[in-house]
Amino acid sequence: MSTAIGRFAPSPSGRMHLGNAFSCLLAWLSVRSVGGRMLLRIEDLDPERCRPDYARQVEDDLRWLGLDWDEGGVDGSTVCCQSRRRAIYARYLDILADRGLLYPCFCTRGELHAASAPHASDGTPLYPGTCRNLSPAERARRAALRRPALRVCVPDREISFTDRLQGPCRENLARDCGDFILCRSDGVHAYQLAVVVDDGLMGVTQVVRGRDLLSSTPRQLWLQEVLGFSHPTYAHVPLLLSADGRRLSKRDRDLDLGSVRAAGQTPEAVVGRLAFWAGLIDRPESVSARELVDLFDWDRVRREDVRLGQNPALFEAP
Ligand code: GLU
User: Which of 2, 170, 196, 218 could form a disulfide with 223 if both were Cys (CB 3.0 to 4.6 A apart)?
Assistant: First the structure.
């Protein structure tokens, strides 16, 4: 059997929070429990949101938690940064353009939100196709005024797959998602493109990530097919929710690894708590990530989101 390859793919847009650590632990256990290789890929394409010091902190927090990785992917460096791979994404955009699958989109964010289109499952407005059939002359006229984003034409086709935790999922790309952006008007390659190219080129066989990305999966499966990459398996893990039911975000400073570490928690206490929330152990006792490898089993992992207590930095039971 070929080696399993998993990945951590954090965006360095803030300090890791407990929810990120929860996904990373499950991704790591999933791959280590079958003797596979783990990659670290820093998803830092958006210069407005990402900072190199956050990337260094992610690495430091992962090491502190005992979640190691083998390498950063195809270029041989220990950590792969997407910001150094722009030429590769540009090449794949050209492939899609040559097949007639891309078109320039001149719509502004305001116009998109103003259109009373139904909303795709991840909350972005479903693109009504405004720029899909512009004439060459109209495209040239608009291009002189505004740099366009690039959208990919999706087929009217149902994509179905079985998620390891969430079960059978399906989506009609045209109806439920619409043509989506692969390159923003400021030239930044979109997550959907970069993740497919990287997972494909790096030979990733299993994707384990937060449930908030479930709705991206049909788009990624379809792009993998178009670009000739094989499909990894998917497991979308529960989210950690704050006491008032919001999903943790990097703005929730009191739940980030910085404050958890500053409060004197040990890595084993944190890993034990995460493993307890995941359903892997029955009590929130201290345990190292390494000690969990042998008892890891996807069938034990809970499917529902985890609502934290009022003071989760002090690790109250949820
Ligand atoms: N970079 C994404 C994030 O931090 C994760 C991407 C993925 O796992 O596919 O939310």
Answer: 196
pLDDT in tens, 114-127: 765 666 666 677 89
Q: Are 282 and 295 in contact (CB under 8 A)?
A: no
> Measured in angstroms, how far is the CA atom of residue 143 from the centroid of ligand 1?
32
Per-residue pLDDT tens over the stretch 23-75: 999 999 999 999 999 999 999 999 999 999 999 999 999 999 999 999 765 55
d(CA 164, CA 297): 11
Which residue owns the Cα nearest ligand 1 atom 7? 9
Q: Are 232 and 205 in contact (CB under 8 A)?
A: yes
226 in Cβ contact with 232 (< 8 Å)? no
The 10 Å Cβ neighbour count of residue 25 is 26
Rounded to a whole number of angstroms, the distance between the first and last alpha carbons of the chain is 40
- What is the 276 CA–ligand 1 centroid distance (Å)? 23
pLDDT of residue 318 exceeding 60: no
Which of 5, 7, 8, 11 has most ligand 1 atoms within 8 Å of its beta carbon, as the pocket-test mutant? 11
Residue type, 90: A
Phi-psi region of 127 (alpha: psi -120 to 50; beta: other; left: phi over 0): beta
CA dihedral 68→71→72→73, nearest 10 degrees, is -140
Contact 267, 291 (CB under 8 A): no
Angle between helices 52-65 and 18-32 (to 10 degrees): 60
Q: What is the mean pLDDT of residues 246-266?
A: 87
Task: Give the Cα separation of 187 and 27 in Å (integer).
Answer: 31
- Cα(98)–Cα(91) distance, integer angstroms: 11
Cα separations (Å) of 198 from 7, 88, 92, 185, 270? 10, 9, 11, 22, 30
d(CA 298, CA 278): 10
